[in-house]
User: Which sequence fits this backbone?
């Protein structure tokens, strides 16, 4: 059986109104992503990477075009429905980790479950399990500022995994890390891939791109190349 | 996703805990933010307590005069006062209520049941070498009952004492302490000028309100000594002589004070008008005054109402200011935590979740301020009563009301920052540095 299509973009346009100027960030992107794919999205700045990532992450809606996530058309959903989709189907990893400073490691990991109405005991158990999986089982009650950058990014990865998402979206996940921690994080991504997770990494780094199995390159709001290795 | 009610209660508890963490992160700021509410709530409770205490005392004093009573007093007419100040020559001044007035009232005004006539003389009372300046009141046996001023020890004088013009007296507790510090005053004798009076009873201390020490009460009230009316008439006649340097002033007054008791409380004001009418017809000068305790009581109640309205306005203003302070800080906090909001939105928080989070924080902040204010507001009257000897009463509803209002302030002034937080675009919020 062929792997299921998880993400499907059909001729997606995105335009912004910047003062008097209309900026066309995406000018007709069509893309299909299958379950278990390990993808990097690259391109010079201003090519529409961030816009594409925001659309894929259901943080924004396309101006024109259709976006199917799993079997659902999310292109015209309202804010609440998109929030629910993000909470249930997507995992986010950011360049600067974006952990919440006043919460401990385990509480940070729990956040997506909290917004889905998961009970506290259940959420705590699942968060602890994931903290162990990323090697931070001994740091559950620590605050983010007590951890190194690499460790913080691991917490963020655990948080992205906690709701068992369809797709994990990572925006420059190694951008703020030294090469050693960065390599460790990338190894973790490789592991996730072998476990069957679908990963989309947005990056500047060719080294990162080389590890992935499909490299999408954008230019001026269009897909320039889309190479499966 | 289904949310059972028990789960949403749990969520609320978790939201509260989360809010506590966020507020605790900026402890000093939270404390400073909340000071407006603290002082607002605290001053309301404290001022209400002091006002309530003062009004209680005033009402007690008025009640002591008797709510069914009308009190008539002789006063020196204003024009006579002027003459006596300018004129150094001696002359006789005759004014005030007369026995004839008394008879007229009794015979013409219905509904007046008991009449307590009284004569008041200022004298120095001696017990061997101890002395006290006091008002000697010549009066009738039913005085204690009429004026709500009971006898503490011994007895008041009787009809028989009046008829015999007996040389007996009843003295105030304050005076008894001063003249007879060692033993009981009852059975002892006091001297006024050349006359001796046997002490047959001691009146209860006046103005002894709960919460006030006895010593305070005794210091403030005037000393009074009661003797039978007939005795007073016999000993002092109707002419009082006041000697001053260079002149002597002679005043002729028959009755200094008359207390009328009206059968029903509703009639008091009407009767007082009738009495006033009657007296004005027979007196050329304005040489009497009419005190109606029930009217004083009503006036006191009105004063209290006005006081409460003023206090309420001050409270409203201070809570408004406090609320604006909280709103200001919450708006700053929302801006500062833009990224946190973005992250939460990305991780599945709905707009409503963000609203609830910030609203709960604001309400907790203002409620904590309210609680602190209540604690201070209860403590301050206590300190005031202890240090200044003022009576204070904390009514049970004032802390509850103040606390509820502070919670409401949190809701009202928290809504706008919370909505602002929730209406942020997640993409923009995530990009915020």
Assistant:
């Amino acid at each position: 059986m062929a792997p299921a299509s998880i993400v499907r973009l059909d001729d997606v346009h995105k335009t912004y109104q910047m003062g008097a100027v209309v900026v066309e960030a995406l000018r007709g992107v069509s893309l299909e992503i299958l379950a278990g794919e390990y993808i990097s999205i690259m391109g010079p700045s201003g090519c529409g990477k961030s816009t594409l990532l925001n659309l894929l992450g259901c943080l924004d809606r396309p101006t024109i075009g259709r976006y199917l996530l799993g079997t659902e058309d999310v292109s015209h959903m309202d804010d609440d429905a998109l929030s629910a989709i993000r909470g249930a189907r997507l995992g986010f990893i950011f360049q600067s980790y974006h952990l919440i400073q006043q919460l401990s490691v385990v509480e940070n990991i729990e956040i997506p479950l909290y917004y889905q109405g998961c009970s506290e005991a259940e959420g705590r158990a699942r968060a602890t399990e994931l903290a162990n999986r990323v090697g931070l089982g001994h740091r559950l009650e620590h605050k983010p500022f007590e951890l190194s950058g690499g460790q913080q990014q691991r917490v963020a990865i655990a948080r992205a995994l906690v709701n068992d998402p369809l797709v994990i979206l990572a925006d420059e996940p190694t951008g703020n890390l030294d090469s050693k921690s960065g390599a460790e994080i990338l190894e973790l991504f490789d592991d996730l891939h072998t476990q069957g997770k679908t990963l989309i990494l947005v990056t500047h780094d060719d080294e990162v791109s080389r590890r992935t199995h499909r490299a999408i390159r954008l230019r001026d709001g269009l897909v320039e190349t889309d190479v499966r290795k | 996703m289904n949310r059972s009610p028990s789960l949403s209660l749990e969520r609320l508890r978790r939201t509260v805990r989360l809010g506590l963490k966020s507020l605790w992160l900026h402890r000093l700021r939270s404390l400073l933010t909340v000071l407006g509410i603290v002082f607002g709530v605290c001053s309301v409770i404290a001022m209400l307590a002091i006002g309530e205490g003062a009004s209680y005392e005033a009402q007690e004093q008025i009640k002591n005069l008797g709510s069914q009573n009308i009190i008539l007093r002789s006063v020196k007419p204003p024009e006579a006062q002027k003459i006596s100040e300018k004129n150094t020559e001696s002359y006789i001044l005759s004014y005030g209520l007369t026995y004839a007035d008394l008879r007229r009232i009794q015979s013409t005004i219905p509904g007046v049941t008991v009449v307590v006539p009284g004569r008041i003389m200022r004298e120095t009372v001696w017990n061997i070498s101890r002395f006290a300046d006091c008002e000697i009141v010549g009066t009738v046996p039913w005085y204690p009952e009429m004026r709500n001023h009971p006898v503490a020890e011994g007895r008041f004088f009787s009809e028989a004492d009046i008829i015999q013009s007996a040389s007996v007296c009843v003295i105030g507790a304050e005076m008894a302490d001063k003249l007879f510090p060692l033993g009981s005053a009852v059975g002892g004798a006091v001297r006024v000028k050349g006359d001796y009076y046997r002490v047959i009873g001691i009146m209860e201390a006046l103005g002894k309100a709960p919460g006030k020490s006895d010593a305070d009460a005794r210091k403030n009230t005037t000393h009074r000594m009661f003797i039978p009316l007939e005795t007073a008439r016999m000993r002092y006649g109707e002419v009082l002589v006041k000697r001053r340097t260079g002149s002597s002033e002679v005043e002729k007054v028959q009755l200094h004070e008359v207390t009328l008791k009206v059968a029903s409380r509703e009639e008091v004001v009407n009767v007082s008008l009738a009495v006033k009418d009657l007296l004005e017809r027979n007196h050329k000068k304005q040489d009497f005054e009419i005190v109606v305790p029930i009217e004083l009581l009503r006036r006191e109640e009105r004063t209290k109402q006005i006081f409460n309205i003023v206090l309420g306005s001050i409270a409203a203003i201070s809570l408004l200011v406090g609320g604006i302070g909280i709103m200001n800080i919450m708006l700053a906090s929302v801006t500062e935590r833009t990224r946190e909001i973005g992250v939460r939105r990305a991780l599945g928080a709905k707009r409503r979740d963000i609203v609830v989070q910030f609203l709960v924080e604001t309400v907790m902040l203002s409620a904590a301020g309210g609680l602190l204010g209540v604690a201070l507001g209860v403590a301050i009257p206590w300190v005031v009563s202890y240090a200044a000897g003022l009576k204070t009463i904390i009514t049970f509803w004032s802390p509850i009301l103040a606390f509820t209002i502070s919670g409401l302030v949190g809701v009202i002034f928290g809504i706008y920052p919370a909505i602002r937080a929730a209406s942020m675009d997640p993409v923009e919020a995530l990009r915020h540095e």
Q: What stands out?
A: Chain A touches chain B through 28 residues (CB under 8 Å). The longest helix of chain A spans residues 179-194. The longest strand of chain A covers residues 5-18. Residues 5-228 of chain A form a domain with the Rossmann fold fold (CATH 3.40.50.300).
